[in-house]
Amino acid sequence: MHAPGTTHGTSIFAADSAPPASVALTSDPSGPVAPNPVPPIDMVQALRQRIRRLETAARCGDGRVISTGCADLDALLPERGLSAGTITEWLTPGDGHGARVLSLLAARQACVDGGALVVIDPERRFFAPAAVAWGIDPDNVIVLRPPIDDRRALYWAIDQSLRSSAVAAVWGALPCVNEHWQRRFQLSAEESGALGLFVRPASVLGEPGWSEVQWLVGNLQAGKRKGENGIAKREGFDRFIDLRLARVRNGTAGAYAKVQIDFTSGEVRKVYHEKQRQSVTCGSAITTVDDSHATEKGSVHLAAVLAHPASGRRRQRA
Amino acid sequence: MAQLGSARVGMPLSEAKSLVQRSRHCDGVATIIEHDPDADARALQQLAIDCRHLSPVVGLVKTSEVPRPASQIEAEPAALWLDVGSVMHLFGGAAGLQATASRHFEELGYTTQQALAATPGMAWGLARFGESRLSSECLNEKENDNEKIKEKVKEKEKVKAFDRLPVVALRLSPATIDNMRQLGIERVEQIRQLPRRGLRSRFGDEVTRRLDQADGVIDEVITAIYPPPDYQAEQTLDYPVSDRETILVVLSRLAKQLCEQMRSAQRGGLVWQLRMSAPEHPPLELLVKLFQPTATLECVMPLFGMQLDEVSGPSAGKRRRLLDFGVIDFCVSVRNCVLLAERQRELFDENPRRDFLALSQLVNRLASRLGAEHVVRPKLRSGAMAEEAAVFEPLVGQADASGSAAASAKPVRSRRRKSSRTGRYPDAGFLAENTPGLRSTISPMQRPLSLFPQPQEIAAVSVDGRPQTDIHVPALFLVDGQRLPVLRRWGPERIETAWWRGPLVRRDYWRIEVADGRWLWVFRDLRAGKWFLHGEF
Question: Would the CB atoms of B447 and A283 count as touching at under 8 Å?
Answer without folding.
Answer: no
